[in-house]
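Write out the 3D structure for:
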Amino acid sequence: MQKSLFVLLSILLLPLGTLDVSALSPEDVPKASSKPYSKKGLVKYCSPRTVDLEVRGRDDQGQWISHAAGTILHEDGYILTCEHVTAPGESQQAILADGTAYPYKVLARAGGSYDTAILKIDPKGKLPAVRLGHSEKVAQGEPAIVIGNPAGRRHTVTYGIVDKPTCGGGTQIQVSRADIGPGNSGGPVFNNRGEQIAHVHVKIWTAHNISRHIRADHVRDAFAKVFSNEDRYAYAIGLTVDCQGDEARVIKVEPGSPAAAADIKKGDVITQLGPMKIDNGVHYALALMDQMGGTALKLALRRDGKIVEKQVQPRRQQR
């Protein structure tokens, strides 16, 4: 993708408010809550879960730099952003709220209406991860907060209102009043409970302060239909896991598959895959991206209120 296209498609937030996130320590960050936060509490909770993306390159016009944003999907360094900001450069890095920068690699892309990509960094420790909200619970008129990286002005905050809970054929939400401009796609849209309800997609240039963003449930759909689809891999274990719910529940086991041979059953809930903690089906799909291969996989499952451990030997797929 050329630099001009990268810049045209990216979405940037204009600086209506900022936060000195470098001063935050873990004990300063409030825990997730089902109740609405104050504006200050909301920014304090959401900022450490947001990352700034920076890509540097060179073309026939000289050196260039592009900015974008994303969110931490899993404590081990998996990042959600837009597919259209994943054009490579000579260097690319994700910058955490405290200023720590890590090079990233692109693990997976889902284009079209999904406009979703997964990046991976290797952090020195565990990171605070976002909670994905559920799109059917998003209501017209509810407040929204967007955090992004305008022209390298890291973690800029702007506030808006959910104008349409569903649009774009059910794949997007529409937000008004949040002043969005070119350059910072992939940044999060949070509700006032700190749940990520969308990621920044596009500004409607023919309207004043109207923008559209990829709904969280459409992101989950990308995980269900694209990222966790075992046809992506050279090996398979024969499991289908629910990506729409709040736990990694097995919804199908292929007869005669390695998973069936390991006595994994429909209704089991996966809580760990290899060294990776699994809280939901999205996490399970992330684990597959790094771990699916010829090596045996160790899984921890919750079954009838007890944790059981299984080992599954992936089978090479016949193409």
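The radius of gyration is 20 Å.
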